[in-house]
Amino acid sequence: MTGRGVAIVGGACTDFGVRPLTWAELAQEAGAALFSAVPGLRAEDVDSLFVGAAMPERFAFQSHVAPLAAEQMGLRPRRLLQRTELACASGQSAIRSAYAAIASGLSDIAVAVGVEKMNLPSMAEANTSMACVMDRPWDGPAGATAPPFFAMVAQRHMLEHGTTAEQLAAVSEKNHRLANTNPHAQFFAKRFSREKLLGLPIVAPPLRLGDCSSMTDGAAAVVLVADEFLRRFPGPVAWVRGSGQYSDFHNLANAGSLTDWVGMKLAAREALRQAKVDVGELDLAELHDCFTISEIVEYEALGLCPPGGGGRWAADGNSELGGTLPVNLRGGLLGCGHPLGATGIAQAVEVYEQFASRVPAARQVRDPRWALVHNLSGSANVHSLMVYERGEAS
Amino acid sequence: MSGARPARPRPRLETAAVPPPAPERTGDAGAVPFLLDFLPLQGERDTRLARFYERLKAGRLSTTRCRRDGTIAWPPRTACPRCHAAELDWVDLPSTGTLYAFSAVLGGAPLGMEAEVPFAVGLVDLDGVPLRLFGRVVGRPWTELAVGEPVAVESYSTPDGRVYYRFRAGASR
Ligand SMILES: [Zn+2]
After folding, report:
1. Average pLDDT over residues A256-285
2. Alpha-carbon distance B55 to B77, whole Å?
3. B121 with A142: Cβ contact below 8 A
């Protein structure tokens, strides 16, 4: 790694769910939450803003959202201002862009915010918007959306490895249960037993409603700071230690194996290599559980279990708090909902709060040092990973 | 499984560089506005791949093959993704394949497709070429489909004169 050290010094989430507010009001709420969560933060010190937003043109009929977010949050960026779009990984893209800007010296103190307003009066219109993430003229006309694609991943995983609907439900039950520790989660205070999950309607066979993350309104924000400015923010920090991405296809025809996510393996190898840490040293992970099957394939891509063994690994409790590697302690996308641009930021907020020992005891990892965050986007054709290490600013 | 695979089909060559006469603009009379409509505009004024749709209208699913290194790409290209040459030929693709994976849309369909719910979609390994195409699967309900079964490629027309391809499962198994 070259460049300056970069750390997250705090962050905040809005409530996630079906929210009676607009895109701009979400951005405003995230700004207010951020300034309240990070006492040392002064608006005039924030020189740059990166805005993760997947499709405000579709969901809010609004483009040029970076200055809109800045205005709503009370920020006047004087160095770098831009929106980052990478579908479901737009939020992590904002963090990575802020990290790159600070490491290179172009920015000293930057905010990364993610905002998505997804619930519209017309569900069909929202579904159309989600579908344009795929290769529009070549996959779109057949009706390609995320659920049938990930359903085919699940079908092949069941066929090749004997993964069961009960194992999928185990992932869903875990993440929905953990969401009960997170008042910001869409499914906070909602109980889902495995039996209940297995009785929910099929959305895209073999996936049922409880196997799929939701359409969610929400926003989240973090502050990233160069090492030489850390003294302004005394307390725990999350150092960015590694970053990796990989993409080798877009059209579904070029996906290769549906069940062996080679791109994730390569991106993880790069992120862990930069951080000089082994997967076995991680204390917690936020993995992109847009669907239950995703989390299962991701365990395998990280080498946490043998190829094909992810379903059993989950059902055996390895990804629970106290297990081999706790995964998605805030409740994941399944429990929190998945506001596309906000998800990657909310995952980083969870890492920071875990490092700062500020989450409820029911999901607090004891003395965590290393955390990994993963987002996939589209049809798992892009994998984005970051590695964080706990530190202390004084 | 589909049993014995046919021999690799002999591609029918056609030079991509020779454009056919320009037809009128197509497809702006669809059921949904252009920017909410997944079916692409297909005419000479809309895309350099208009030949793909012309051939599909004649029942021939095709793609481009690089004259320099033989790369068969999907989707069809105007430049080879391997060597970036622009000298590409159109080649017909096999009209049969094997269902590799499938699912179905039981709800939450995009605009213009709601009336077609429930519908099946799948990935199909085309016989004799290393291509696995995604598409709609018709012929039987999703509950009666099976991984590994043979399907046929077919083209179909929309009321506004555009054309697309899909897969057809046998009437019974
Ligand atoms: Zn070539």
Report:
1. 98
2. 15
3. yes
Is any Cβ of chain A less than 8 angstroms from the Cβ of B83?
A: no
**Cβ atoms B61, B95 nearer than 8 A:** yes
Domain assignment present for B8:
no
Q: How many domains does chain B have?
A: 1
Give the model confidence (pLDDT) of A185-195 as tens digits: 999 999 999 99
| Closest CB to A152 among B40, B114, B123 | B123
Note the ipTM here: 0.96
| Domain A6-121+216-238 matches domain A138-210+241-388 at the CATH topology level | yes
CB A144 within 8 A of CB B108: no
> Known catalytic residues of A?
88, 338
Residue B53 contacts A, CB cutoff 8 Å: no
Token reading at A131: 């579908």
Ligand 1 centroid to Cα of residue B65, in Å, is: 8
Instruction: Answer whether B110 sits within 8 Å of A141, measured CB to CB.
Output: no
Closest partner CB to A143 (pick from B75, B102, B110): B110
Peptide bond preceding A205 in cis form (omega within 30 of 0)? no
Does the pLDDT of residue A237 top 60, yes or no? yes
Residue indicated by tokens 């094997």:
B98
Query: CA torsion sign, A130 to A134 to A137 to A139?
Result: negative
Q: Report if residue B28 sits inside a domain.
A: no
Query: What is the CATH topology of the domain spanning A6-121+216-238?
Result: Peroxisomal Thiolase; Chain A, domain 1 (3.40.47)
Going from the Cα of A149 to the center of ligand 1, the distance in angstroms, rounded, reads: 30
What CATH architecture applies to the domain A138-210+241-388?
A: 3-Layer(aba) Sandwich (3.40)
The verdict on residue B19 lying in a domain is no
Is the whole-model pTM more than 0.90? yes
Nearest CB to B74; choose among A143, A151, A253: A253
- Contact A342/A114 with Cβ under 8 angstroms? yes
CB A289 within 8 A of CB A213: yes
Domain ranges of chain A: 6-121+216-238, 138-210+241-388
**Chain A residues within an 8 Å CB radius of B100:** 156
pLDDT at A108 over 70: yes
Query: Can you tell me the mean pLDDT for A168-190?
Result: 98
Q: What is the pLDDT of residues B68-94, one digit of tens each?
A: 999 999 999 999 999 999 999 999 999
Alpha-carbon gap: A124 to the closest alpha carbon of chain B (Å): 5
Chain-wide mean pLDDT for chain A?
97
B133 has a chain A CB within 8 A of its CB = yes
Model confidence pLDDT, tens digit, residues B36-50: 889 999 999 999 999
A123: confidence class by pLDDT, cuts 50, 70, 90? confident
**Structural domain for B85, as ranges:** 38-169
Q: Do A143 and B164 touch (CB under 8 A)?
A: no
B92 domain residue, yes or no: yes
